[in-house]
């Protein structure tokens, strides 16, 4: 191990420019992927927030007793899809309407708006089919007059979310592949620059494991350093647009996962490249 | 038939290449312990292939190569690495690491085999002493003449106390004087009991030495001076 570390240091000292170039190339490959990830992460956050607006409103028949409403709240709250049920009295509905809509300012009769149950669904249960199924079950209560859930909006939202998800998967895969290819090519360049050394090592009796170790350490270090640089760049980039839009950075676990991906790519790239070179000698 | 143990034995060895030249067909010979043998023949006759096969850098398509107790018929990459520690290799183009001193180039051959660090310095010093380069320990290859670089390469080949030295045109890039010096060095090494198999184009050198000669022509062994009359096959 001591000798392998010395070889890594020797290689860096011999061609610091190439080593720095490798780190920068790895960093920019991961940075491009990181930027895409950041955009995807923020779009996902925005979609999740918008999705929280998916709710059902069951309007109750006038004169429905509080006991029946209380039982229904408990019953509906136990649906596996339902996160929360709130009973909105006519008075509360009117107060809310007066706050939000100016044309209700002169309306004072509490019975003007019907009582209702507001139902919010759990995350992952907001697909149009699920929402419609819950709506049908609500319609089954005799004291439910009508159920509204913005059917058109829910459908369009699901379409947009699916399109964004698929675009994210396709583009993310493409960015990831480009990053892998670039990191692999960078590491391969380093290995090729030391092809003569590898041949001489094998010639004088070095085992494959012995030849590999310094390259694996080198690839790992470059991957980690490139990953850290990419993380720093990805963290700094949103500052440029912070005045225009609000950007949420990755949670710590995801940010460090990016560095780990860099390290894994460096290690894998080095392992594959040196393996390929070893097969020739 | 052969009382002296062999360090290299080729038995009906065939190795062809897609490019058509440089391969060998049904080559058989043995290199005895302590023997000095020349490999001659025109370019593309298969001299370098014989040496590559002896180093197990290439494996035969058919036939068997036995070297330092190992057989090409059943050998892993790990075992090849261990066999190479018993072989010293010298090339026309020296194959030194340009960014390391003469001392480090020789030490490298010990370090990669996992030799104990404590003894490396003394062994390297001794090997460089044998080739007469003690005054150039810290010189880089670029600061050395061709002959000196080849002597560093020979020191590297010797430092592991090999059973056999495989030399591929070791004087090919050297002037007359340096060539004679390098050849004399190889003779001295051979006199110490190490077998030497040397490919060369220098027929004057071959004739003057009186050592056994194998002549290759288009991949086949055309002449073996041990079996024919002395020098009768050399053109």
Question: Overview of this structure, please?
Answer:
The complex is a heterodimer of chains A (281) and B (235). Chain A has helices spanning 2-14, 16-51, 66-77, 90-100, 128-139, 151-193, 195-203, 208-236, 252-278, and strands at residues 55-60, 82-88, 116-121, 144-148. Chain A is α+β, with helices and mostly antiparallel strands and 281 residues long. Chain A is elongated. The mean pLDDT of chain A is 87. Chain B is of the alpha/beta class and 235 residues long. Chain B has 2 domains: 1-86 and 163-235, 3-Layer(aba) Sandwich (Rossmann fold); 97-161, no CATH class. Helices cover 32% and strands 25% of the residues of chain B. Chain B has helices spanning 47-54, 77-84, 102-111, 117-130, 146-158, 176-191, 203-209, and strands at 6-15, 24-32, 36-40, 62-67, 70-71, 87-91, 164-168, 195-199, 212-217, 220-224. Chain B has a 6-stranded mixed β-sheet, sandwiched between helices. In chain B, helix 4 (117-130) crosses helix 5 (146-158). Chain B is globular and about 45 Å long. Chain B starts with 5 loop residues before the first strand and ends in an 11-residue tail after the last strand. The mean pLDDT of chain B is 91. Classes of the chains: A alpha+beta (281), B alpha/beta (235). Chain A binds chain B through residues 3, 10, 14, 196-197, 199-208, 210-211, 281, and chain B through 55, 57, 77-78, 81-85, 89, 95, 97, 99, 108-109, 111-114, 156, 160.
């Amino acid at each position: 191990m001591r000798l392998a570390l010395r070889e890594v240091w020797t290689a860096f000292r011999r061609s610091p420019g190439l080593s720095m170039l490798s780190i920068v190339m790895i960093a920019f490959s991961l940075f491009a992927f990181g930027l895409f990830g950041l955009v995807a992460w923020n779009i996902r956050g925005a979609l999740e927030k918008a999705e929280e607006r998916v709710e059902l409103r069951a309007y109750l028949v006038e004169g429905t007793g509080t006991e029946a409403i209380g039982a229904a709240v408990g019953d509906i709250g136990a649906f596996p899809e339902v996160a929360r049920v709130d009973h909105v009295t006519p008075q509360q509905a009117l107060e809310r309407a007066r706050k939000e809509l100016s044309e209700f300012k002169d309306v004072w009769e509490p019975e003007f708006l019907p009582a209702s149950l507001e139902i919010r669904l759990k995350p992952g249960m907001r697909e149009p089919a699920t929402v419609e199924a819950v709506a049908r079950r609500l319609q089954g209560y005799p004291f439910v007059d009508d159920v509204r859930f913005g059917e058109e909006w829910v459908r369009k939202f699901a379409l947009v979310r699916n399109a964004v998800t698929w675009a994210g998967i396709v583009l993310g895969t493409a960015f990831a592949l480009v990053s892998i290819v670039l990191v692999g090519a960078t590491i391969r360049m380093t290995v090729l620059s030391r092809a003569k050394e590898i041949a001489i090592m094998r010639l004088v009796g070095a085992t494959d494991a012995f030849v590999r170790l310094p390259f694996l350490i080198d690839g790992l270090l470059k991957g980690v350093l490139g990953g850290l640089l990419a993380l720093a760049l990805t963290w700094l980039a949103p500052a440029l647009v912070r005045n225009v839009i609000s950007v949420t950075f990755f949670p710590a676990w995801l940010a460090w996962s990016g560095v780990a991906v860099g390290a894994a790519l460096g290690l894998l790239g080095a392992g594959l490249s040196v393996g390929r070179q070893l097969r020739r000698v | 038939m052969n009382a002296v143990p062999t360090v290299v034995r080729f038995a009906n060895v065939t190795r062809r290449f897609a490019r058509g030249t440089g391969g060998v067909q049904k080559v058989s010979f043995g290199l005895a312990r302590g023997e000095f043998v020349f490999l001659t023949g025109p370019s593309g006759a298969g001299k370098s292939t014989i040496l590559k096969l002896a180093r197990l850098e290439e494996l035969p398509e058919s036939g068997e190569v036995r070297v330092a107790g190992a057989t090409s018929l059943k050998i892993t990459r790990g075992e090849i690495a261990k066999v190479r520690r018993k072989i010293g290799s010298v090339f026309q183009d020296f194959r030194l690491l340009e960014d390391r001193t003469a001392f480090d180039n020789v030490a490298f051959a010990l370090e990669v085999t996992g030799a104990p660090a404590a003894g490396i310095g003394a062994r390297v010093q001794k090997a460089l002493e044998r080739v007469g380069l003690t005054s150039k320990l810290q010189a880089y290859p670029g600061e050395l003449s061709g002959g000196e670089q080849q002597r560093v390469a020979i020191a590297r080949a010797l430092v592991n106390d090999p059973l056999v030295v495989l030399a591929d045109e070791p004087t090919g890039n050297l002037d007359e004087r340096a060539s004679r010096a390098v050849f004399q060095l190889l003779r001295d090494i051979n006199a110490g009991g190490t077998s030497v198999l040397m490919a060369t184009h220098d027929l004057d050198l071959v004739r003057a030495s009186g050592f056994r000669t194998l002549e290759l022509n288009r991949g086949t062994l055309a002449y073996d001076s041990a079996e024919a009359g002395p020098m009768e096959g050399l053109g």
